[in-house]
Amino acid sequence: MRSDATFFTLALIMAYFGTTAAKGCPYSIKRYGEEVKWDIIEAGTSHIRVVNGIGATIIAKKNCKLSLKGLPRFEYTISRGDSINRQS
Question: In this predicted model, what pLDDT tens digit does every residue of 40-58 receive, in sequence order?
Answer without folding.
Answer: 999 999 999 999 999 999 9
